[in-house]
Design goal:
The structure is a single chain. The protein has helices spanning 14-19, 27-40, 51-66, 68-77, 92-99, 106-109, 113-129, 148-154, 159-188, 194-211, 217-236, 245-283, 287-325, 332-350. With 368 residues, the chain is mostly helical. Helix 2 (27-40) packs antiparallel against helix 3, helix 2 (27-40) crosses helix 13 and helix 10 packs across helix 14 (332-350).
């Protein structure tokens, strides 16, 4: 008579062992373990021959254990042909997209290039592993879309690859601009009387209340809101009750430089800790101390990934805002209305709080 496992006593524990979690691990523990290992075995950083295969394995384990039905099936029968999500296992780039905003933010920020570059690294990793002179730059930490051109030069990227990268970003901006335009038109094409303005604000508040619960939702909303507000105020200037446009231009440039420095610094911090971990392993550091170092390395890696993604998102959204505010196909009055709508959205996004309903937020805007 065949033996079957239970949720309390799984017939196979290899997935749990792969992620380093107990068989009764919560979804939060599984997610935390996966994220830590995803950083460790990122083929763009990990030069070992089995890094690519290792990531595929932990990715599979993560997707099975995070799905209640698949996990129950696995606990009872172990691995078999039926053990796969509907539609197959998720593409690696989706993990990084889900890490920062997920599907809920896709229409606002698009697909993060960090996920795209990760996927490409997976596809080309096998070819690169056979080269003794593999470029260090190609295996360095993923950078932002704003830095991609410089990285391309350093890693001897072909002209065709650079043109493809530019085209992808242009398409991304175009699509996001169309989506944002549909949103601001709810205000710009209304009567803009108190009732219609309140209706618009309430729609944005409801949207923000849902978005803040996503992974890094609150941080993303604040970053997006900052860009929207900055661009709107710069366009509206004195006429819209704001400071002169030149003031906002200087303020924006300072912010960009600050964020760029933060991005570089977080990457340097991550590299420093990674080197400490490597040194500790070589010197045979005690397991407990080594685990503390690895935890620190993971935390700094996520900080670097977030800072990189944030920088990329802000750079992309500045282009998106320019697209709808500098649209010469419409008159200046229409663009002015778009800027007003953008200012409202930016204010709401920037002031979203974790434990306070956004519906209670009072929108306070100059010149309103």
């Amino acid at each position: 008579m065949p033996q079957f496992g239970t949720d309390e006593n799984p017939i196979d524990t290899s997935y749990y062992e792969l992620l380093g979690v107990p068989s009764n691990a919560t979804s939060l523990q599984v997610k935390k373990a996966f994220r830590k290992l995803a950083i460790v075995y990122h083929p763009d950083k990990n030069k070992s021959e089995d890094a690519e295969e290792k990531f595929k394995e932990i990715s599979e384990a993560y997707q099975v254990l995070m799905d209640p039905q698949l996990r129950s099936h696995y606990n009872k029968y172990g691995k078999d042909k039926e053990l796969a999500p509907e539609g197959g296992f998720m593409d690696p780039r989706e993990h990084f997209q889900q890490m920062f905003g997920g599907d809920a933010f896709r229409s606002i920020i698009g697909d993060l290039s960090i996920g795209e570059m990760f996927s490409e690294a997976m596809e080309t990793g096998q070819q690169q592993s056979g080269s003794e002179n593999g470029s260090d730059e190609q295996q360095a930490a993923t950078t932002t879309s704003a830095e991609d051109m410089e990285k391309a030069k350093q890693s001897h990227m072909s002209k065709e690859q650079m043109e493809k990268m530019q085209k992808v970003q242009q398409e991304r901006v175009k699509k996001l601009a169309e989506t944002l335009l549909n949103k601001v038109d709810l205000y710009a094409k209304s009567e803009r009387d108190p009732e219609s303005v309140k209706t618009f604000e309430d729609q944005i508040k409801l949207e923000a209340d849902k978005l803040k619960n996503e992974s890094y939702g609150l941080e993303l909303l604040h970053a997006i809101g900052g860009v929207y507000s900055s661009k709107a105020k710069h366009f509206l200037g004195l006429k819209g009750g704001e400071m002169p446009s030149i003031f906002h231009n200087v303020k924006q440039k300072r912010h960009i430089m600050k964020e760029l420095w933060s991005t570089v610094k977080s990457a340097m911090d991550m590299q420093a800790v990674a080197e400490m971990v490597a040194k500790a392993e070589a010197e045979g550091l005690e397991r407990e101390d080594r685990m503390k170092l690895e935890e620190e390395a993971t935390n700094r890696a996520y900080k670097a990934l977030w800072q990189t993604s944030k920088f990329e998102v802000e750079a992309t959204l500045r282009q998106v805002c320019d697209t709808i505010l500098q649209d010469k196909a419409v008159d200046k009055q229409t663009r002015y209305k778009r800027a007003e709508a953008l200012r409202i959205i930016g204010f709401i996004y920037k002031h979203v709080e974790e434990n306070k309903p956004t519906t209670e937020l009072v929108v306070k805007i100059k010149g309103k």
